[in-house]
């Protein structure tokens, strides 16, 4: 005997609960609340965030105003307060846990956090100016939001954005793109990494480090990576002199040493791996590989339909077909 069928979720109730959760975040007064931008201001902000042309009309149409959509506006204001409730760009802080909007909100929900960052941009730029960050670094750093819109469309077939937690770093001023790579000021968390590099002369738990992130917009050319690492130490010393960094760390499937058995010896990826000394745990990272390389959301990959256009494509799929797993690996290196 079976019980009654489970009732489908009420879309209005789900939306109400989501708005209530965001609107119920603790009030904070670290910075002034945002104001709706004018048409010209909105266009300028979209340019700086590199929002793709095919997304701009829906983004502009869905931006709420305090009178027309007070509940959504209040939710944005509270997110803006939490975004800047940190202690500033010199101190890493906890990233807010902002839930993705319910599907019932449609485009207004899929672009909700784009609206947040459009509203948050003036204060973020003020922080960059006070730190003396060059305009080209600012532009390269904030263009990452547009890149995430592009990968969302590739993965979902429609416009949207789901990297709300990731962009907190850019707007708080703890992450900057310096040429090919991104560098984020932080500390080594040995618990999260499954160990540290202290025994081999690397960073210990709690040491300041630069976390290296790899934008997915081109090859890992060794010359470009050399230039990025060379720039990183000088950049930190000039703009953040109170927090010296000796080491950089990277946590990525690109450091999985199994790749050496699948790629040519002269591969850019293998050259990038050789910069780092391995440490810590190696959890399964298949979902990261599929999402980063193939733009396939977790749990949706069909190996028979993935593109096989490059040596990397073929190597990744071949390993998964044989029952293997790709691993997220950790590595440290001394800054030049």
UniProtKB/TrEMBL annotation:
Residues 175-332 form the GNAT-like C-terminal domain. Residues 41-173 form the N-acyltransferase N-terminal domain. Keywords: Acyltransferase, Transferase. GO terms for molecular function: acyltransferase activity. The keyword Acyltransferase applies. InterPro entries: GNAT_C, NAT_N. This is Acyltransferase domain-containing protein. It comes from Streptomyces pakalii.
């Amino acid at each position: 005997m079976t019980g009654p069928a489970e009732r489908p979720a009420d879309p209005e109730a789900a939306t109400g609960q989501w708005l209530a959760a965001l609107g119920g975040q603790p009030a904070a007064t670290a910075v002034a609340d945002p104001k709706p931008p004018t048409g010209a201001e909105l266009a300028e902000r979209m340019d700086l965030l590199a929002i793709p042309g095919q997304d701009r009309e829906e983004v502009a149409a869905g931006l709420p105003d305090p009178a027309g959509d007070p509940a959504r506006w209040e939710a944005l204001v509270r997110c803006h307060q939490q975004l800047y409730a940190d202690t500033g760009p010199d101190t890493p802080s906890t990233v807010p846990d902002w839930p993705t909007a319910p599907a019932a909100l449609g485009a207004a929900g899929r672009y909700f956090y784009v609206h947040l960052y459009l509203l948050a941009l003036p204060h973020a730029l003020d922080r960059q100016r006070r730190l003396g960050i060059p305009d080209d670094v600012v532009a390269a750093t904030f263009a990452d939001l547009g890149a995430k819109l592009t990968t969302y469309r590739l993965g979902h077939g429609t416009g949207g954005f789901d990297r709300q937690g990731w962009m907190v770093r850019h707007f708080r001023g703890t992450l900057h793109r310096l040429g090919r790579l991104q560098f984020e000021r932080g500390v080594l968390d040995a618990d999260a990494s499954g160990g540290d590099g202290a025994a081999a002369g690397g960073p210990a738990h709690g040491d300041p480090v630069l976390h290296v992130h790899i934008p997915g917009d081109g090859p890992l050319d060794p010359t470009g990576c050399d230039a990025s690492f060379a720039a990183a130490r000088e950049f930190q010393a000039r703009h953040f002199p109170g927090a010296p960094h000796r080491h950089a760390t990277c946590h990525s499937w690109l450091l999985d040493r199994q790749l050496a058995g699948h790629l040519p010896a002269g591969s850019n990826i293998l050259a990038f791996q050789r910069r780092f000394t391995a440490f810590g745990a190696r959890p399964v990272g298949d979902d990261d590989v599929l999402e980063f390389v193939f733009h396939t959301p977790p749990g949706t990959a069909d190996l028979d339909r993935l593109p096989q256009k490059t040596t990397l494509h073929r190597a990744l799929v071949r390993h998964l077909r044989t029952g293997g797993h790709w691993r997220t690996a950790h590595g440290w290196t001394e800054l030049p």
